[in-house]
């Protein structure tokens, strides 16, 4: 697979701990919603070539693409995009946990606990929760295939 340049700040410049603190500081859902949109803007739009190298993940409310590259050091670089701003923001949050992690580390993540820690679990619609679950299953499949 060719080297992909779909870089983003999630998991490096923006960590899960940063996002957890930011999300927990927002008491109103509207403020969390605005933060998700802000995160979505930081995730670059994939060009057509890169989007074709990604997999469209079924089960999401909006179209979502997620791709990856196995780095030489055994970690995984993930890239993605979505047509929906909220879903794209949620994808950005997931990327903070999985970007440049080993497959073993990704498989050890308790994603339920991960989203509980953000305070988002109880505020997302069933369809968005189903979409997140579809993304998590695809991420775990990638990790299993690359162990």
From TrEMBL:
The active site is at residue 60. InterPro entries: Cysteine_desulfurase_CsdE, Fe-S_metab-assoc_dom. Residues 23-141 form the Fe-S metabolism associated domain. It holds the Pfam family SufE. It comes from the Bacteria. PANTHER family: SUFE-LIKE PROTEIN 2, CHLOROPLASTIC (PTHR43597:SF5), SULFUR ACCEPTOR PROTEIN CSDE (PTHR43597). Belongs to the SufE family. This is Cysteine desulfurase sulfur acceptor protein. It comes from Moellerella wisconsensis ATCC 35017. The lineage of its organism: Bacteria, Pseudomonadati, Pseudomonadota, Gammaproteobacteria, Enterobacterales.
